[in-house]
Amino acid sequence: MNHLVAPSILSADFANIQRDVEMINKSEADWFHVDIMDGMFVPNISFGFPVIKAIKKHATKPLDVHLMIQDPDRYLQTFKDAGADILSVHLEACPHLHRTIQGIKALGMKAGVAINPHTSISHLADVIDEIDLVCMMSVNPGFGGQKFIENTYRKIASLKELIRATKSSALIEIDGGVDLNNYKKLIETGANVLVAGNTVFSSADPSKTIAKLKKI
Ligand code: DX5
Ligand code: ZN
Question: Strand, helix or coil at 164?
Fold first, then answer.
């Protein structure tokens, strides 16, 4: 499959959110990546439901919502109502991950599982055939603009092997530190979805940068 690009709205200009959403609508981007941080699971707070709804109102592409929150089961319905199309929860935040995944799918959303850089791929073995997406963190979650962790390539190869062996249809999404220098190697190693915040929004021409990230 051709890889997908999901600009991370965390790096957008929140005083001009409609402008930035429309830039993504008109660009070659595939999804909106929407980061939710609770100040507990990660040491930062991003934004909540009113902002997701505001993005959804203008977005013409799917909302890929990445929850960096404790006990996400409390809010699955609310994220659905706010406009999430794909909902990813952190493996490290879900003691009953299998149940959480079923809950997301029962609400009609695609289910994703996000894993921190220290979490081994082996922890996904018993849910990989239940999910649509693995959001592999290539930085420690909590902030945009961090340095890419090189060990990610090894983890992509290992996840790709697990997906092949189990005939899972899960996509491999890479989140954190993706830039114009590493995106090609990520795709070659097996990434299907590239999240990019700082690389897109700190560039002189965000739409052109998205187009570059789409080129193989
Ligand atoms: C980090 C978030 C990422 C972040 C990526 O905790 O999950 O989605 O926005 O930003 P960049 O591409 O700037 O590393
Ligand atoms: Zn994210």
Answer: helix
Any atom of ligand 1 within 6 Å of the Cβ of 196: yes
- Cβ burial of 151 (10 Å; 0-12, 13-18, 19+) is exposed
Q: Which atom of ligand 1 is nearest to the CA of 198?
A: 13
Question: Residue 82 corresponds to which amino acid?
Answer: A
Give 183's Cβ-side CA count (13 Å radius).
21
pLDDT digits (tens, 9 = 90+) for 162-175: 999 999 999 999 99
User: What's the structural domain count of the chain?
Assistant: 1
The domain in which residue 37 lies consists of 4-214
Give residue 112 CA to ligand 1 midpoint distance, Å. 16
**pTM for this prediction:** 0.98
| Residue 116 CB less than 6 A away from ligand 1 | no
State the Rg of the chain over Cα. 16
CATH number of the structural domain spanning residue 166: 3.20.20.70
* Count of residues in the chain: 216
Decide: 173 in ligand 1 pocket, CB within 6 A: no
The stretch 103-129 carries a mean pLDDT of: 98
Looking at the CA of 141, name the nearest ligand: 1
Residues labelled as active-site residues: 35, 175
